[in-house]
Amino acid sequence: TGASATTDQCTPGVITIGSATPTGQTTASVTYTPTAPLTANYLNIYANGASWKTNVGTGSPVSITGLSANTNYYFSVIACVSTNGRNYCGGTSSNSNTITTDQVNPGTPSAVGGTATSQNNATITWTSGSPATQSGFYITTTPATITTTVTPGSATSGGISNLTCGTTYTASVQAYVTTNGRTYYSGTGTSGSFTTSACISAPSTASAGNLTIAQLAGWPEVNVAITQANSSVSGYAVVLNGLTIDTGTSNVTAATSLPNFSSLTCPKNYTANVYAYTIDTSLNGATSATCSGVNLPSPGNKKCSPATTITVPVNYCTQGFFQN
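The chain above was modelled as a monomer; its predicted structure follows.
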């Protein structure tokens, strides 16, 4: 009897193309549906109308590699069968949708510099690297790592806050690009060191000898003038009979009124609590706990010493005039 033989497989049907999706900077995937005859055992892939990969295994989706970043592509697929040493390919599918592969990594920022602008803040500057494909930047300081995001990608400087006063930092800048739901990073550019402004402490004491408190004539009230004589602090707060006198941030004479005398006693003694304070902008407008009970007219950014108690005599006489 003669040997039996099997004829060649039928040519596969034309594939129904599905959708193309970028999966990276150099990769994509394409879905498809085969049509009868279902004889294919490999695929040929076309990208932008030209042959891209041949003899690709069957199965949907198809993974495509070797593409270029940030490039537009559309794909078509041909189903083929290898049988008895011969190859048969069906028709070419229609084209898929057009995709854009992921953007290339941005270049590393250079010329990174840092300048402290206060006790707790600094400005960081840089020059964008090449290629300048970034969506934004990350600024990071060390020690005590603090990271801030700066956008848009065209930015060349950014502020960073919550630093510690009187501390030396270095800053690094890294560019990033977000594309097709993925993020890619540059290398890191690093600055030289910069130091935030010195810390400011509350004065240890308020010396009564640093103030001159004098009675000024007036009716029906008495004015008390406070002269600050010590420029080593920012100012003094004098709490006198429930009223607070703030000498301000320079050597000044400030006056306030005392209520009418409750008796004809002459002199009438008032007790004053004196607080020295410093200005610390790192408080960002808040009131230091050391000043919380002082009731300063403008309490923000002030750190107070403990109180020093002094006696202020105010003379009143029945003749209708005041004496110092």
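Residues 216-222, 249-255, 259-264, 317-324 have pLDDT under 50 and may be disordered.
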